[in-house]
Design goal:
Blueprint lengths: L2 H31 L8 H18 L1 H22 L5 E3 L2 E3 L1 H31 L2 H6 L5 H31 L7 H25 L6 H18 L11 H7 L3 H13 L15 H22 L9
Antiparallel strand pairs: 1-2
Helix pairs in contact: 1-2, 2-6, 3-4, 3-6, 4-6, 4-7, 4-8, 4-10, 6-7, 7-10, 7-11, 10-11
Length: about 300
């Protein structure tokens, strides 16, 4: 693709995004102009905004493909590279490399579709003036953030479902067969998704511009993937590295997912010798609350140089 084609493609995306924003503004202005009519509630506006966000996301095909393919490709690489080695054993119980790494891929998919996606997209929207224009409309700030969370929830659900399907059909990874494990999956998934999304909103104020957003967001998340038991078994990581990773949500989401997809015997090889469901819930909830507080205090609708 030539440079001119690339610029033209970006221009088309910007134009489509501008049309979506204009249509949203026009709809609200029309409602306000009607005598005796009020805007819909915050939740309903958030769902409408979520539909707009989802439509814009689907139109960016390269982003969709990368978001859905990354966890699957990483699982395929690990299963292929290490599949011929000795299986992983704990307490006399054996699992394949694909089964062992599946929980980490689910966890990293959650963080990619929440934290990374929101932190980068919001920083870009601030830089190109989208947030400034939205701030001037009747759309409540809460509805804007609900729309972002809706986008994250839909994408991470679809991504995880696809990942589990590939793991089962292609790599013969057994899925849990009892309700208790799926209940654990549900609360770890929901709490991890919520914490990742809110952290992404809060962290979006860190990049100084839309151009620097990818480097500022992707680099620390990639480092956490190497230190949180995603790419390597926790037994192969130094203690100090695990202690450092324990500060952040990714390690706990991965550990919670291991408790779902691995036999109970593998709890003994965890750093604490147990799945630590209570600690997982406490850490993720703490990050959720802390990110809400920090995000409310530091979130910016305008660029640094825009007064």
């Amino acid at each position: 693709m030539s440079g001119t084609d690339g610029v033209g493609g970006l221009d088309k995306l910007d134009q489509r995004g501008a049309v979506d924003q204009r249509e949203t503004v026009d709809q609200r202005e029309t409602v306000l102009d009607r005598p005796g009519r009020q805007l819909p509630g915050t939740l309903r506006q958030g769902l409408v905004r979520g539909g707009v966000e989802l439509l814009q996301f689907v139109r960016e095909r390269d982003s969709v493909i990368f978001s859905f393919a990354y966890p699957i490709l990483m699982l395929a690489i690990f299963a292929t590279v290490f599949g011929g080695d000795d299986p992983i054993v704990a307490g006399g119980t054996t699992v394949s490399f694909a089964q062992y790494f599946l929980p980490g891929m689910v966890a990293t998919g959650v963080m990619l579709s929440t934290f990374q996606t929101l932190a980068i997209s919001i920083a870009v929207e601030r830089d190109d003036g989208t947030l400034k224009r939205l701030r001037a409309t009747p759309l409540p700030a809460t509805s804007y953030f609900l729309g972002k969370v809706f986008l994250s929830l839909v994408t991470v659900l679809a991504q995880t479902a696809l990942l589990l399907a590939v793991a089962t059909l292609v790599f013969d990874v057994p899925l849990p067969d009892d309700a208790g494990r799926w209940a654990t999956f549900a609360w770890v998934f929901v709490l991890g998704t919520a914490a990742g999304a809110v952290c992404g909103v809060a962290y979006s104020s860190v990049p100084s511009s839309g151009r620097s957003a990818s480097a500022v967001v992707v680099t620390p998340l990639l480092l956490l993937q190497f230190t949180s038991g995603v790419f390597f078994p926790v037994t192969q990581l130094p203690g100090w590295m695990l202690d450092l990773a324990s500060i952040f949500p990714l390690k706990w989401i991965a550990q919670g997912m291991r408790s779902v997809f691995l036999p109970d015997a593998f709890a003994a090889v965890e750093p604490a010798g147990a799945w630590q469901h209570g600690a997982t819930a406490a850490v993720l909830a703490a990050w959720l609350v802390a990110a809400l507080v920090v995000g409310a205090r530091t979130f910016r609708w305008r660029r640094h140089d825009d007064g």
